[in-house]
């Protein structure tokens, strides 16, 4: 709603189809699309993403659902902005991870997680927003697309080197 108020985008949180059981437990009825979707301002470009938070210094792929990844990959092939808004809660930083980058990382390096160092070295830190806008992730996406192109083909996928441990 905050982006809509300033005429920059209309992005809504999708309802998750499901029902509550007698034990007051919610059970989803189907595998839903990502939590957020809409249209970006003047360009009219579609945007779809899911928000993830991690306390660790890696984003584990176990926390990313296969049906969401598939949906996001299909949308990106059609020209939509698609990915994950990832918060590293320990350092209070948020990044937009495009699905194209996630797919190339997964396919090129065959790893099951993406380290914080990769985000910090290659993606644009999402700036704090103003007013009702908590994080201005659209600005980060625009900066990333200017840097790498909307297909992110110019981003080189290289695993960060591990820091050597000090000998005791």
Q: Secondary-structure map with pairings?
A:
Layout: H1 2-5, E1 9-13, E2 18-20, E3 26-28, E4 36-40, E5 45-54, E6 58-60, H2 66-77, E7 81-88, E8 93-98, H3 99-109, E9 113-115, H4 116-122, H5 137-148
Parallel strand pairs: 5-7
Antiparallel strand pairs: 1-4, 2-3, 4-5, 6-9, 7-8
> Which CATH class is shown?
Alpha Beta
Name the shape in a single word: globular
**Strand content range:** 25-35%
User: Span between N and C termini?
Assistant: 53 Å
The number of helical segments is 5
Output the radius of gyration: 17 Å
Helix content: 25-40%
How many strands, what sense, and barrel or not for the largest sheet? 5 strands, mixed
Q: Which sequence of strands runs across the widest sheet?
A: 1-4-5-7-8
Q: Could you say what the CATH topology is called? A: Trna Endonuclease, Chain: A, domain 1
Mean pLDDT value:
85
Give the H and E element order: HEEEEEEHEEHEHH
CATH architecture level-2 label? 3-Layer(aba) Sandwich
The count of DSSP E runs of length 2 or more, i.e. the number of strands, is 9
Unreliable stretches, pLDDT < 50, 5 or more residues? Answer: none
Q: What structural class is derived from the secondary structure elements?
A: alpha+beta
Overall number of domains: 1
């Amino acid at each position: 709603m905050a982006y809509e108020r300033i005429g920059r985008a209309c992005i809504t949180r999708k309802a998750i189809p499901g029902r509550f059981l007698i034990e007051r437990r919610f059970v989803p009825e189907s595998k839903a699309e990502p939590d957020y979707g809409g249209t970006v301002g003047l360009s009219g470009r579609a945007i779809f993403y899911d928000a993830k938070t991690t306390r660790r210094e890696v984003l584990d792929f176990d926390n990313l659902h296969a049906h969401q990844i598939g949906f996001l990959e299909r949308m990106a092939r059609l020209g939509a902005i698609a990915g994950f808004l990832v918060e590293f809660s320990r350092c209070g930083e948020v990044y937009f991870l495009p699905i194209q980058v996630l797919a190339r990382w997964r396919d090129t390096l065959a790893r099951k997680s993406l380290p914080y160092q990769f985000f910090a070295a290659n993606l644009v830190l999402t700036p704090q927003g103003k007013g009702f806008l908590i994080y201005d992730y659209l600005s980060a996406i625009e900066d990333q697309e200017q840097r790498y192109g909307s297909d992110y083909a110019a981003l080189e996928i290289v695993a960060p080197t591990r820091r050597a441990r000090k000998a005791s």
